């Protein structure tokens, strides 16, 4: 009796992933930080630069419209802080836009193709699709549950995924099917060339 109650006290509730119903396909609902940065488009950086330049531009504008008269060296620290805030805003906005493409919330044809190519190459090499981790399966699940779809709220709490885990909300069988097709085509190509 006590064994049964002890066992039930330590069960982990399974929170199912939200299945997006958007116009574009889901690539990954919890992409690793480095993967998001590799897939970031130049237009995301340009958008982020626009967002990030607002803070220093406003400080310069306000200083011109209503001078503070703080004297020599008084305005420079304020501008440095303003530029640091702008750079943070630039990075977070570019990161969020790139992550939204993984979620299928934005047009993501380029990312879908890059994802398929990257994962099929990993399958062909016999590598783990999403990398390996020294963390326990339980902690990988905790990390996933804490950071999935986190870029939606990145402007309030930046919480990117730094953990390699197998929970990404997509059916990975498509990568294995594509790898099989490509390997078969390569084999047939070699047989055709040898005969």
TrEMBL record:
<dbReference type="InterPro" id="IPR053229">
    <property type="entry name" value="NADH-Q_oxidrdct_subunit"/>
</dbReference>
<protein>
    <recommendedName>
        <fullName>NADH-ubiquinone oxidoreductase-like protein 21 kDa subunit</fullName>
    </recommendedName>
</protein>
<keyword id="KW-0472">Membrane</keyword>
<feature type="domain" description="NADH-ubiquinone oxidoreductase 21kDa subunit N-terminal">
    <location>
        <begin position="23"/>
        <end position="107"/>
    </location>
</feature>
<keyword id="KW-0812">Transmembrane</keyword>
<dbReference type="Pfam" id="PF10785">
    <property type="entry name" value="NADH-u_ox-rdase"/>
</dbReference>
<feature type="transmembrane region" description="Helical">
    <location>
        <begin position="45"/>
        <end position="62"/>
    </location>
</feature>
<dbReference type="Pfam" id="PF12853">
    <property type="entry name" value="NADH_u_ox_C"/>
</dbReference>
<feature type="transmembrane region" description="Helical">
    <location>
        <begin position="74"/>
        <end position="96"/>
    </location>
</feature>
<dbReference type="InterPro" id="IPR024549">
    <property type="entry name" value="NADH-UbQ_OxRdtase_su21_C_fun"/>
</dbReference>
<keyword id="KW-1133">Transmembrane helix</keyword>
<feature type="domain" description="NADH-ubiquinone oxidoreductase 21kDa subunit C-terminal fungi">
    <location>
        <begin position="116"/>
        <end position="190"/>
    </location>
</feature>
<dbReference type="InterPro" id="IPR019721">
    <property type="entry name" value="NADH-UbQ_OxRdtase_su21_N"/>
</dbReference>
């Amino acid at each position: 009796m006590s064994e049964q109650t002890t066992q039930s006290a330590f069960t982990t509730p399974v929170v199912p992933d939200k299945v997006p119903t958007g116009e574009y396909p889901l690539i990954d609902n919890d992409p690793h930080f480095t993967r998001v940065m590799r897939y970031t488009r130049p237009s995301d950086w340009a958008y982020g630069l626009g967002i990030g330049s607002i803070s220093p531009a406003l400080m310069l504008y306000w200083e011109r419209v209503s001078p503070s008269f703080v004297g020599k060296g008084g305005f420079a620290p304020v501008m440095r802080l303003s530029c640091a805030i702008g750079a943070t805003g630039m990075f977070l906005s570019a990161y969020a836009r790139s992550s939204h493409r993984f979620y299928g919330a934005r047009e993501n044809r380029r990312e879908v193709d890059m994802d398929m190519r990257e994962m099929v190459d990993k399958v062909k090499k016999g590598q783990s699709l999403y990398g390996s981790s020294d963390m326990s399966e339980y902690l990988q699940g905790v990390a996933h549950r804490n950071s999935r779809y986190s870029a939606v709220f990145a402007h309030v709490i930046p919480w990117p995924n730094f953990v390699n885990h197998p929970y990404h909300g997509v059916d990975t069988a498509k990568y294995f099917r594509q790898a099989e097709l490509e390997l078969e085509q390569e084999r047939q190509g070699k047989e055709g060339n040898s005969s």
